[in-house]
UniProtKB/TrEMBL annotation:
Top-level lineage group: Eukaryota
Annotated GO CC locations: plasma membrane
GO molecular function terms listed in the Swiss-Prot or TrEMBL record: inhibitory MHC class I receptor activity
InterPro entries on file: Ig-like_dom_sf, Ig-like_fold, Ig-like_Receptors_ImmuneReg
Positions of transmembrane segments: none
Name this protein carries in UniProt: Ig-like domain-containing protein
Keywords assigned: Disulfide bond, Immunoglobulin domain, Signal
PANTHER family: IG-LIKE DOMAIN-CONTAINING PROTEIN (PTHR11738:SF88), MHC CLASS I NK CELL RECEPTOR (PTHR11738)
Disordered, as annotated region: 44-98
GO biological-process terms attached to the record: cytokine-mediated signaling pathway; immune response-regulating signaling pathway
Biased composition annotated in UniProt, kind: Low complexity: 52-66
SUPFAM superfamilies assigned: Immunoglobulin
Length: 98
């Protein structure tokens, strides 16, 4: 399986309290996408999309200091696993009230 890419929408600099979505395109063969965060550690899992987008979406409705960190994505098929994506550093800034 090819190495996934990963990005954040609207970007890697996220105002605390604002929504952010981490996206990762994959492969038609992918069954499950996993998103990992280092310190504080976290794990999220998404089933492969049923449409032709082949893109996993991990939404965070209200970012906080615990949302910030370094993320990586990997996806699995029944018989294989992709390489890890390159790390994505997500940085929390200020708050919406500032």
């Amino acid at each position: 399986l090819p190495k996934p890419s990963i990005w954040a929408d609207p970007g890697v600099m996220v105002t605390k309290g604002s929504p952010v979505t981490i996206l990762s395109p994959g492969s038609l063969r992918a069954d499950v996408y996993r998103l990992y965060r280092e310190r504080p550690s976290g794990l999220w899992e998404a089933k492969a999309p049923q449409d032709s987008s082949n893109k996993a979406s991990f939404p965070f409705e209200s970012s906080s200091s615990s949302t910030a960190g370094q993320y990586q994505c990997v996806y699995h098929s029944r018989k294989d696993r992709s390489e890890w994506s390159d790390p994505l550093p997500l940085v929390g800034t200020g708050s919406r009230e500032d």
